[in-house]
């Protein structure tokens, strides 16, 4: 059983399109995250949710809108995709925010053409 | 700005040798973690060291933490080809934020 699963694994789309990435964790964790990893492998936090509430939004353009229907899910919707959005997006979860280890999904490689 | 900075950016060693990676950070922390990322995969947690700890071991891994110098090191002893990966340090950014460094790419030659 995959602890943190995100879909799709690969996503190729044209500029201007709207796309969503889904994430689910079956660990019973309270906190979930979205990270963006660029081509230089730099991993940057985008959002952090705790008990379905947005805690952190790291100056991410408002074209990115996370949605957490319940504690186990944190989806990422991106409007009007731009070339610079191409990256690998990772979902993660942890039990007690930054006090404990985070479990990562396998990543979604987004390519905007 | 990013909290953790790893050094070196890349490291190539022979199988059986030890690999040492360093991490420096800027602000006070409650804990520091090390993660590994294999190519094309998600990050996997290796070890967490709290600010009141100086050294921690897990199998072939040894992590040290010097809060006075705001630095940590990860030592992998008797490296194997399977240890080839990128290694990231991560610090708690206060509350609900874990901040990652840029990573060290380790290549272990068989």
Could you characterize what this model shows?
The complex is a heterodimer of chains A (113) and B (110). Chain A is mainly β. Chain A is 0% helix and 56% strand. Chain A is built from no helices and eleven strands. In chain A, the strands form two sheets. In chain A, strands 2, 4, 5, 6, 9, 10 and 11 form a seven-stranded mixed beta sheet that branches. In chain A, a hairpin with a 2-residue loop joins strand 5 (43-50) and strand 6 (53-57). The termini of chain A are far apart. In chain B, strand 9 (85-92) and strand 10 form a beta hairpin. The interface between A and B is medium-sized, with 29 and 27 residues.
Radius of gyration of chain B from CA coordinates: 13 Å
**Greatest interface and its participating residue counts:** A-B, 29 and 27 residues
User: How confident overall, as mean pLDDT of chain A?
Assistant: 91
Structural class of chain A: mainly beta
Shape type of chain B: globular
How much of the sequence lies in strands of chain B comes to over 45%
Q: Helix and strand layout, with pairings?
A:
The complex is a heterodimer of chains A (113) and B (110).
Chain A: E1 4-7, E2 10-13, E3 19-25, E4 31-37, E5 43-50, E6 53-57, E7 64-70, E8 73-78, E9 87-94, E10 103-104, E11 108-112
Parallel strand pairs in A: 2-11
Antiparallel strand pairs in A: 1-3, 3-8, 4-5, 4-9, 5-6, 7-8, 9-10, 9-11
Chain B: E1 5-7, E2 10-14, E3 19-24, E4 31-37, E5 43-50, E6 55-58, E7 61-66, E8 71-76, E9 85-92, E10 98-100, E11 104-109
Parallel strand pairs in B: 2-11
Antiparallel strand pairs in B: 1-3, 3-8, 4-5, 4-9, 6-7, 7-8, 9-10, 9-11
